[in-house]
Specification:
By secondary structure, this protein is of the alpha+beta class. Helices cover 55% and strands 16% of the residues. It is built from seven helices and six strands. A hairpin with a 2-residue loop joins strand 5 and strand 6.
């Protein structure tokens, strides 16, 4: 039994024992399964008490819940920032999507036009909204301008010609009208 205790100590701190001491422990006497089981239980109780296991389970559950909450929060933030980065059309006082605004214009001639604000929106999104509202066709002569990001306040009182000249004032973009098409360069 003494050898078994010494072996347990040696396995906990192997650097403190020489090769001769290891040979001495393993030479001669054998250890029964019951002795190994008894020593293992003693070792387990000493290093892993039962009350700590409950705390570990609770801590692991809490950490798991925190991780899932963090992942869910991050997903919401990523989706929210993705929507914001595409420059949602926002009215100064109410949120108005472009299809709703165009539908209102077509349904009632007396509808009051809105001012729509595009914040950090791609030019393609702005042009798509304009072409839908004014019923013109877009024609891109330079594909790279589609991804230019702009801040633009679209006053729906203005004609498509006025809007084309306003957007043409931005650097790296030129917009002109030709029949029922809007040419973007």
């Amino acid at each position: 039994m003494e050898k078994l205790r010494k072996l347990t100590q040696m396995t906990e701190h192997p650097e403190q024992y020489s090769d001769e001491e290891w040979q001495e422990i393993f030479g001669g006497e054998t250890v029964s399964d019951e002795q190994v089981e008894t020593e293992w239980k003693r070792f387990e109780q000493q290093h892993f008490p039962r009350h700590n296991r409950q705390w570990l389970k609770m801590a692991a559950s809490f950490i798991g819940i925190l991780m899932l909450s963090g992942i869910a929060w991050a997903a919401v933030q990523i989706i929210g920032s993705h929507d914001d980065s595409h420059g949602n059309a926002v009215e100064a006082t109410n949120t108005v999507t472009i299809p709703q605004a165009a539908k209102e214009k077509r349904e009632t001639a007396a509808a009051t036009p809105h001012t729509v604000v595009f914040e950090d929106a791609e030019l393609q999104e702005i042009v798509d909204s304009l072409t839908y509202y004014y019923q013109v066709k877009p024609a891109y002569r330079n594909a790279s301008v589609r991804h230019l990001r702009l801040y633009y306040e679209w006053d729906q009182h203005n004609s498509i010609g006025d809007i084309a000249s306003q957007i043409s004032n931005f650097d790296h973009v030129s917009i002109s009208l030709k029949g029922d098409s809007i040419i973007i360069e």
